[in-house]
Design brief:
Number of helices: 8
CATH class of the largest domain: Mainly Beta
Strand content: 15-25%
CATH topology of the largest domain: N-terminal domain of TfIIb
CATH architecture of the largest domain: Single Sheet
Largest sheet: 3 strands, antiparallel
Number of domains: 3
Distance between the termini: 62 Å
Radius of gyration: 30 Å
Structural class: alpha+beta
CATH superfamily of the largest domain: ADC-like domains
Helix content: 25-40%
Shape: elongated
Number of strands: 8
């Protein structure tokens, strides 16, 4: 009966055991992660059994952090807690917070990669503005941009303002503004948004937790 190229020893040729004898062979076998896992104390294979000599000398980015700031993942509505590790006032790593009763230190692939939102080269760190009919973007000062937004909010409120309806009943509302919250807004932020837009007379105030 044929057993393929290399015979019974074929699978072992690529791992350096063919030709080994006695204690030398068992020493080599003992270096396999699966053997270390089955024969050692790390039965789950999440510690010493999974480490190689090159891993032992590695240091995590979190080891040199100056401080740790608490945060929340900016993606879905689950709201997994995160720990942002900071060195020299720059975020060097983001990991799950094991103290969170929601996620218990776990993050999905998107949450685990959220460091790129802060450090990615394509992240915009200035206000960009393109005037009506313009073909180019320009940089704006943050204070100037906030003033422009405030002016537009006031103008939209006034354009859509309704004092009374067709039967003369008092309305005191605007249909020129609307608010739509997202997943990363907590209860306090939603409370403040509701108060703000209600005070301005808006009636379309919603929250969509899947955004």
């Amino acid at each position: 009966m044929s057993v393929g190229a290399g015979g019974f020893l074929g699978p072992f040729r690529g791992i350096g055991l063919v030709g080994e004898r006695g204690p030398r062979m068992w020493e080599r076998l003992g270096q396999w992660p699966v053997v270390r896992q089955l024969t050692g104390h790390d039965r789950l294979g999440r510690g010493a059994a999974a480490q190689s000599p090159s891993h032992v000398g590695l240091r995590p980015r979190t080891a040199d952090a100056d401080r740790v700031a608490g945060s929340v993942c900016p993606y879905c509505a689950v709201g997994c807690a995160q720990k942002a590790y900071v060195r020299d006032e720059k975020i060097v790593q983001i990991e799950g917070d094991p103290d969170s009763p929601i996620s218990r230190g776990r993050l999905c692939p998107k949450g685990s990669a959220s460091l790129q939102l802060v450090t990615g080269p394509q992240r915009l760190d200035k206000v960009r503005y393109r005037a009506p009919y313009a073909t180019e973007w320009t940089d704006l000062d943050l204070h100037e941009a906030m003033e422009m937004i405030a002016d537009r909010v006031v103008a939209a409120r006034e354009r859509g303002w309704q004092d009374v309806d067709g039967k003369g009943r008092r309305l005191n509302r605007t249909v020129g503004l609307a608010a739509l919250g997202g997943a990363t807004l907590d209860n306090e932020e939603n409370y403040l948004l509701k108060k703000l837009f209600t005070a301005m007379g808006a009636i379309q105030i919603e929250n969509q937790a899947r955004i």
